[in-house]
Amino acid sequence: MKLHLIDVAIIALYLLSTIFIGLWYRKKAKENKESYMLGGKSLPWYKLGLSDASDMFDISGTMWMVSLCFVYGMKSIWIPWLWPVFNQVFLMMYLSRWLRRSNAATGAEWLATRFGKTGAGVISSNLVVIAFALLSCLGFLAYGFIGLGKFIEIFVPWDLIKGYIPFDVAPQYVPHIYGIIFTLFAMFYSILGGMHSIVVGDMVKYGIMTVACIWIGVIATTHMQGNPLNVPKGWYSPFFGKHLGLSWTGIITEVNAKIKSDGYSLFGLFFMMMTFKGFFAALAGPAPNYDMQKILSTRSPEEASKMSGFVNIILLPIRYTLIISLTILGLLFYHQMNLKDGTGAIDFERILPAVINNFLPVGLVGLLLAGLLGAFMSTFSGTMNAAQAYIVNDIYLKYVDPQASTKKIITMNYMVGVVVVAVGVFLGFFVKDVNSVLQWIVSALYGGYIAANVLKWHWWRFNANGFFWGMLTGIVTSMVFSVVIPDGELLYWFPVLFGLSLAGSIIGSYAVPPADMAVLKSFYSTIRPWGFWEPVKQAVLVDDPSFQSNKNFKINMFNVVIGTMAQCCLTILPMYLVLRQKMPLLVTVGILAVIVVILKKTWWDRLKEY
Hints:
globular, 0% strand
């Protein structure tokens, strides 16, 4: 255990600050439902963007990304396309504006603007999106919970405290005990203060992480002087061919087994499948989680776009400074670290905590631990807030007590928050590791979400019945696939999953009449999507001959392409900087500068036109 008094004091001060924030914003959060769930739609875009970025800067994902960077080097920047990370670019360019124009409070409430409040399939479509939202939220809670526990276990070995615990704990469940303890802090401030305390807590955490990441970047660069990294040929290059082409034989042979188990050896095929899935996932818009809630919390559609763009700028450089720095120290001191888990197997997700525990100075350890604990708490609190919103707004207020008072609504949010956390923690006990639950969320569950949610934006004939059957087909199929198909192969079954969900969507839509034309005209004229809307467009023009349809498909797609290039540059730039790769760094900065100038003209200056 390497924690010194200064480190413990920094961590304790941070945890106390979260309690203070929750108590401070308790009164403001209790003003009304909108203030609790969406911050009253009064928070500026840059605060919400920073908060959204903080929610994405999660401890489990960072542990996973450090292990990827260690194994795959610069090629690791592509693997998070599994999410896909470039969905933020689609949101930035147009989808956030479309979503925010609805003025809804949740994704389920948004459906009323698309399909209406009555008719075939409306109730079932609401229930299926609520079910999906809760499944994904609970999956993310379990994902964060197990990642935090594995992280803390290295800093506070169980042998040091088991004598003070009145019950026996099997080695494989030690991370879960630690997870429960710190989950209680996250639950306290986010339940009391709602969106207001979540955003302020995220800002505090981001400030801590920025200082810590820059500090550790300087340390990693210093350690590299005179100590070249012993890595395979191709490790420094982000480019690849049909095969991955990385062999760790004779360097760290155990890594070869990791590459084999991940299933990324045929990297060209993996990349094509990942991009195919990612494109449709991005077209579908944000999943019903904390990201969607932050977009719906913005003050206007234009600010929603700015917020989504700001996420990339605020998140990627700092996060990847940390990732590459910890990777460098992990490579330099690999043979001095113990990466074995409770069962004796090597776990590369333990590189991050092992490096912090052994090779960083006093003070920085405390800052980094406080920041990473904050990363867990911000992800956890944002996800919990989204789950609360769906249960209270879309179930309790819609079907149980529509006339509930503000006091009763807030009380229900408190109770639901506790129950959601308890279920998330319970599920965490069944999670093998961070990567397994991540694969299930992004490859299986989210795969079932895509088809119906692409059609809802772009096809007028798609209705609530089609949405229900498309979502249900996708979710059930994804559940079956997650049981019968190994984790590493789920991605390659995505076309089958997508095809079945698409068939369910189309058959379900044609099984009943179209949505009411009045609802479709209201949606089309308010949201102004592009796509296959010709009959609705003609109906709108009858009522309003001056109506201008959205003709921005080509410029939106152009912006998405160069925006994704900019996102890649923001990802790899800090890696080249810390590694002192001068020429690649200059090329990256040059490309990024050109893209910024273009986007100023094609996106920023035209936000109100879209």
